[in-house]
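User: Structure tokens for this complex, please. No commentary.
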Amino acid sequence: MAVEGGSKASEGSETLTASVVGGSGFTGGELLRLLDGHPNFEIAQATSRSAENKTIGSIHPNLRGRTLRFSDPADLESVDVLFAATPHGVAMERIDAFEDAADTVVDLSADFRLDTEEQYEEWYDGHSAPEYLEKSVYALPERNRKELPGAELIASGGCNATATMLGLGPLFDAGLLDGDEQVVVDVKVGSSEGGASGGAASSHPERSGIVRPYAPTGHRHEAEIEGEFGISVSFTVHAVDMIRGASATCHVFPDGPVSKKDLWSAYRDSYAEEPFMRIASGGGGVYRYPEPKAVAGTNYGDVGFELDPANKRIVVFSAIDNMMKGSAGQAVHAANIALGLEETAGLEFQGLHPVGAP
Amino acid sequence: MAVEGGSKASEGSETLTASVVGGSGFTGGELLRLLDGHPNFEIAQATSRSAENKTIGSIHPNLRGRTLRFSDPADLESVDVLFAATPHGVAMERIDAFEDAADTVVDLSADFRLDTEEQYEEWYDGHSAPEYLEKSVYALPERNRKELPGAELIASGGCNATATMLGLGPLFDAGLLDGDEQVVVDVKVGSSEGGASGGAASSHPERSGIVRPYAPTGHRHEAEIEGEFGISVSFTVHAVDMIRGASATCHVFPDGPVSKKDLWSAYRDSYAEEPFMRIASGGGGVYRYPEPKAVAGTNYGDVGFELDPANKRIVVFSAIDNMMKGSAGQAVHAANIALGLEETAGLEFQGLHPVGAP
Amino acid sequence: MAVEGGSKASEGSETLTASVVGGSGFTGGELLRLLDGHPNFEIAQATSRSAENKTIGSIHPNLRGRTLRFSDPADLESVDVLFAATPHGVAMERIDAFEDAADTVVDLSADFRLDTEEQYEEWYDGHSAPEYLEKSVYALPERNRKELPGAELIASGGCNATATMLGLGPLFDAGLLDGDEQVVVDVKVGSSEGGASGGAASSHPERSGIVRPYAPTGHRHEAEIEGEFGISVSFTVHAVDMIRGASATCHVFPDGPVSKKDLWSAYRDSYAEEPFMRIASGGGGVYRYPEPKAVAGTNYGDVGFELDPANKRIVVFSAIDNMMKGSAGQAVHAANIALGLEETAGLEFQGLHPVGAP
Amino acid sequence: MAVEGGSKASEGSETLTASVVGGSGFTGGELLRLLDGHPNFEIAQATSRSAENKTIGSIHPNLRGRTLRFSDPADLESVDVLFAATPHGVAMERIDAFEDAADTVVDLSADFRLDTEEQYEEWYDGHSAPEYLEKSVYALPERNRKELPGAELIASGGCNATATMLGLGPLFDAGLLDGDEQVVVDVKVGSSEGGASGGAASSHPERSGIVRPYAPTGHRHEAEIEGEFGISVSFTVHAVDMIRGASATCHVFPDGPVSKKDLWSAYRDSYAEEPFMRIASGGGGVYRYPEPKAVAGTNYGDVGFELDPANKRIVVFSAIDNMMKGSAGQAVHAANIALGLEETAGLEFQGLHPVGAP
Amino acid sequence: MADDSTITAEDPLTGDEIEVPADVEVGEIIDSPVSGAELEVVSTDPVELEEAPELEEDWGE
Amino acid sequence: MADDSTITAEDPLTGDEIEVPADVEVGEIIDSPVSGAELEVVSTDPVELEEAPELEEDWGE
Ligand SMILES: NC(=O)c1ccc[n+]([C@@H]2O[C@H](COP(=O)([O-])OP(=O)(O)OC[C@H]3O[C@@H](n4cnc5c(N)ncnc54)[C@H](OP(=O)(O)O)[C@@H]3O)[C@@H](O)[C@H]2O)c1
Ligand SMILES: NC(=O)c1ccc[n+]([C@@H]2O[C@H](COP(=O)([O-])OP(=O)(O)OC[C@H]3O[C@@H](n4cnc5c(N)ncnc54)[C@H](OP(=O)(O)O)[C@@H]3O)[C@@H](O)[C@H]2O)c1
Ligand SMILES: NC(=O)c1ccc[n+]([C@@H]2O[C@H](COP(=O)([O-])OP(=O)(O)OC[C@H]3O[C@@H](n4cnc5c(N)ncnc54)[C@H](OP(=O)(O)O)[C@@H]3O)[C@@H](O)[C@H]2O)c1
Ligand SMILES: NC(=O)c1ccc[n+]([C@@H]2O[C@H](COP(=O)([O-])OP(=O)(O)OC[C@H]3O[C@@H](n4cnc5c(N)ncnc54)[C@H](OP(=O)(O)O)[C@@H]3O)[C@@H](O)[C@H]2O)c1
Ligand SMILES: [Zn+2]
Ligand SMILES: [Zn+2]
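Assistant:
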């Protein structure tokens, strides 16, 4: 057993130190996995109050054999980059300490995603450090790449919002939507979205085999989508029986006529140069449209579309792994760009086939 | 092992003979299970070409120990009721033979669901016995109970159409919708919908753990819904990782304002007296809205709803077991009514808790 | 919605009152389901401390619409039969109160399964009411039917022990084993075995998709098996991804030569007249040997066997639903016999096909 | 979408050409994935008769975007290494052509695993190219590393045999077993073991949620185990509901007394220097013993053990991903050693947490 | 089970008469067997129920 | 793998240049590595591709 060092290639290039606050959680564990295999990062610290002093492999079995142990989030080491993967509300309380500890802070919670204090009052329970909202940069590179280089406070997007924005973005970019259209977004998500501290509803006997409406209306990720596109979407989220994955089906009713060619142009224009975006739209075989298990474990975002002329509808499908493109992968991607590293560094895993409900 | 006779109660009441054409299939097997436990039916014949002469328990392990063997569908016995559970197109070819063999024919395929030959030309590949279309009665008792007594040719509804109609019906009945509204129906279904003869896409390694758009647009069940409500719905179906179950989420945009009270009245008015309809709409605990596993194995249809004032939207949730309310259960329910039997006879199973992906 | 009364047939026969202590748990819920559909029982009381005053359907969605509410276990009503479905240790503390409240007490825990106080000291933490051990009767009818009529305190068996005893019993009965043989029992179980109050290991993300050794050695059910057969078995239990079900594979090394015919005789002799035992041993099709999903939701016990001449081994397969034959079904079966009711009353459900991981 | 080249690091080191015969199958697809991400290989050819001229991504969605298309296995290109991932019997027929096309041939089937023609007559249907049996080298590096450098024909091991040998090996190496002991091996496997061309039993509705005895006795992998250890094992295989993974539980009855310390020494001695072997044996948390999902997608083999003094038994747990350590990963690992490459090259993926049934 | 330990009240959502335990107190939350909804007891003589405010964060994500 | 056994053609859906086997024949169905779509070869010199008519009933229910 000589697993220390994992897949790290020693490539002479610079090495940055990183810490993960909330390292015992689901997205925290994913960050540790990615950083462990990243050519430019060395993990200096992973925090957990409940698992303090335990090895990171005792919680995350994929990291067995690593010598790093969880430490107290109250004692932050000085690092180049601090990733915070804590529940909503923690980062806004501790943001000063985070900024003291690191030049670059990437927060995975919703704490710095919205622009104004008012929005936090409308959608959450207010904000305790609103002065940082101006400064923070929304992470999603496909929509925000230009803002990222040099960013000091990065807010990684919500998983369901990310899936939706990746699906709808090209329609707005190409002018096929302008913001006054009817848009229904029907989302299906896996159980890792709920984080590691699930209650009765997420026990295996109750959570298995379900198609369960869990956010019928009023999901908070609507705020992020509205922030990006200026459109209010009709948003409904269902929990289904998978662990990783978020799939958004957007039913869109454009004002004027749209052809299949228009759609292909729009999506190719937006994504042809994107390293993590793939278009799957029809064709043969088993995997014709985006689906979560085709992207599980990867940082890919798969999108596809279909026309429904009878109803003057565009249907857009979008699939991501909520642990990756929907959180930890997006965070590392954004950090790579912010720090001038190779954009895809540490994020090359292609995914598995066949694979079940990863 | 003395299982012959199953749960049959001998109750002195009349006994009718029944046959199942397509008895080796999924819905055929479900019909055999229901008839086996039904107080008023005795199974005279179950057909299969591929499993001829095998016991029905060799295909359906829940019917182990029964002495009945599959026989050739070319040799039909005379019975009181014939249930046909064959792929689309078979019943229309054989309808004369079916009518000769039985006073009452219940067909589970789409062959007699629509009203006119033209509709079959639009949505299917035409019809070879259009003279029966006038005569046939659509089964779904919650929408069609009055037409059923004495019916001689009953067309059991499509599973996804059934889920949708049960969800939307009360809105039309109460006048909250009149047919010109925008309606998006996003359906999630299990693998038994595909029947017993699945191809590569339904092998376990490829079909497990999925959220897969399998009918992005143009699903044929739209025709049944349009037939019932005169409305064109924007219909999209996803395959998810369960075996039994169809869940329809209807996103509805009514013309005028609608209150939660209006919705409760509408659904109570339509379903308060229905033996198989239940409303699950909010409340506490784990099971707040309809979900397939809460109805699995049963003939229940669960419906629920929520208001989204910000988007002037009603969200309606509807869940059924496609093998039961969506096919075999609906067929037996309709036959019970047609023949003047106790409406719930043979359909009393309450379902299981806890239960996984049945 | 008119579900009250469920599948209850009113048959003029006597009606007994029953209560379920621990009615909000998994086996308690299963008891409520069975009693709700049982022709001879009326549920007088279901207790829960955590869900007091809630309807039973708020916890068990299959019992939606019933008006019965959970009440405090401290206030027991007088009934004919009391079923206790509480964690180990509760029934031994409360047995006097139980006996006061009911003529017949059926306990589903391990509290009255073993014969002597010494055994409880060896395998558990001692016993606080050892005077009842003499009096109590072990429930499993296939091994103990003669002791049950008139029994006042019945101890329903352990699920894994039941699966094992049903598999091995015929070998002992037929003299093919005498107790000094090597017997390895490798068990695979679903998540409902853990009860409703699961911890971190039984959350959906951690518990899904597993083959997890959870009792490598020293499982307490060994004591019951040893009590029945006087043999020490090498017992190992694995948790797998299903909700209901226990499957025991017994690898048995008999002293002398045994033929396939000997095995068939042994199993036929033991089980030919048993209403809930089925033999599945080879043959064609998909379902050749016992497997949990073929018995899910039912009170069946399926057993099968194969010879391995090269290793002088008999392999015995046994499958039950732990919620049914492994607990609530066994309890009702035993109560039926104890009270002189129809043995199969309330237990007729045949199970489903196709079905997933119920 | 700029995925061509995947995770390939261009490292100045030598690049070898490779082909995969049977590239449309499950293990063939896994080989393509590994070679696609391997720093020292370039894929020259992937064959498929049924998918000729289709892109490899049309079958394996994780390889979307690659321009390589399947070609006819009759036209083999000259390459450095040929991997054959065809059903049993194909490689022995085509071995001369394979040897002509490549300096190094790695076969994933059973065709060259056993030593003698006689064994193929006993366990299979004979052998058509027995002259190669002498020459071929069994791949599993943990047992055969010294034979691999320079090997020209490598036979990658059977998945269940691999899991078993990794579990039992240290006991033989340490002299705790000598070959005359009773050994029961109870295996649980996922559906990818059956390959891409599954029949009725592997359709999703029939294969989901199962614990199904599929090789009660006489599994062919016994031959490989006997070949390695000279011991006849009592071997039984169950299919369970996962896609990737093989878990072997070995119940071992040593002749003399064995302590926990003896076991730790044995396993540490065998595996301390092995890059892919990990010991998980007790401890705290959720993941205490080996389980397939902790190794899914990786080339790890996890082993653990427990003592059962009451029965003088050692229980050994072993878990691998059958697509990786049990086939494609083992094959690449062996090729790396045979060709003098970095042993872990292309095999660094650490696996995922949380993860479901991958 | 409609004995003297239960009394009836109106489900404010559906208008149905439902049974509630006779000893309910003001402020208690009771679920309705008809609608499944959680209802708050706002008075006891007679028993009057109102839709309970939803407990947002106790379910799911 | 862009050697002489492949030639390029235009994906009619996306406009991208894609590689197809040099020996394709008219009527053959080829998938595009860019769009994943199934394309029919409508002429070979040069190779021209059109969106293939969808094979309705070969997938799912
Ligand atoms: N799960 C997803 O798919 C997803 C996707 C996008 C964004 N997010 C966001 O990412 C964040 C983390 O989500 P998650 O799913 O990883 O949650 P999680 O599994 O519950 O993990 C939370 C982590 O935070 C730590 N923590 C909790 N309270 C803390 C405090 N007051 N101070 C310091 N550490 C604290 C916990 O460890 P200890 O209690 O041991 O300290 C744990 O390590 C959330 O804001 C979530 O909304 C999640
Ligand atoms: N599955 C659902 O959820 C569902 C729901 C609603 C409605 N339906 C409809 O119900 C019907 C049956 O569906 P299913 O899922 O049960 O299909 P299935 O599992 O494929 O079964 C089809 C049955 O029909 C028999 N059959 C096929 N061709 C026949 C022929 N030419 N003549 C006589 N028998 C023939 C087959 O047996 P042999 O080939 O051995 O004769 C088999 O028993 C279909 O029309 C379907 O659309 C299904
Ligand atoms: N699950 C199985 O497969 C299985 C099989 C065979 C035997 N058993 C045995 O059956 C018993 C119940 O198992 P289960 O799986 O149903 O457990 P469970 O789901 O955890 O339910 C336990 C029930 O007991 C109640 N309870 C707990 N402590 C109590 C106390 N001190 N006084 C009164 N009520 C109490 C709980 O409700 P409140 O806390 O709300 O009062 C709950 O209703 C156990 O002894 C178990 O070993 C279970
Ligand atoms: N699955 C496992 O876990 C596992 C583990 C260890 C070892 N193995 C062994 O690995 C081999 C492949 O298994 P698999 O699961 O990958 O099988 P699979 O999914 O069925 O794939 C078989 C492949 O071989 C091709 N093929 C079949 N017959 C052929 C022929 N006559 N000539 C050329 N190509 C042919 C098939 O493609 P076309 O028909 O399109 O040409 C397909 O690409 C088997 O020998 C198996 O025993 C498998
Ligand atoms: Zn989220
Ligand atoms: Zn259908």
